[in-house]
Write a structure and sequence with these properties.
Distance between the termini: 12 Å
Number of strands: 3
Radius of gyration: 13 Å
GO molecular function: ubiquitin-protein transferase activity
Number of helices: 2
Helix content: 25-40%
Strand content: 5-15%
Number of domains: 1
Order of helices and strands: EEHEH
InterPro entries: Ubox_domain, WD-SAM-U-box, Znf_RING/FYVE/PHD
Strand order of the largest sheet: 2-1-3
Largest sheet: 3 strands, antiparallel
Protein name: U-box domain-containing protein
Length: about 70
C-alpha cells in the first residue's frame, strides 16, 4: 500500500483500488453496505506507519511503482 485512504465505512484502502471500485459501485467493498459518502480521506498516520515498517524491514517488500 502506498497511498492509503479512509472511506466512509471506516476502512483503509489503496487509493487507486477504491477509486476503481467507486467508479462503478456505491457500496463498501468490505461490508457491502451503501456508502452515503464516497469522499476519500488521506490516512497520513497509516502512510507513516507503512513507511516506518519498510525502513525497518529493508528488502522485505518492494515499494510499489506509482501509477
Amino acid at each position: 500500500m502506498s497511498d492509503p485512504v479512509l472511506a466512509a465505512d471506516g476502512h483503509a484502502y489503496e487509493r487507486s483500488a477504491i477509486e476503481r471500485w467507486l467508479a462503478t459501485k456505491s457500496t463498501s467493498p468490505m461490508t457491502g453496505e451503501e456508502l452515503e459518502l464516497t469522499r476519500l480521506f488521506p490516512s497520513h498516520i497509516l502512510r507513516r506507519q507503512i513507511r516506518e515498517w519498510r525502513e525497518a524491514h529493508p528488502g522485505r517488500v518492494e515499494a510499489p511503482s506509482d501509477e
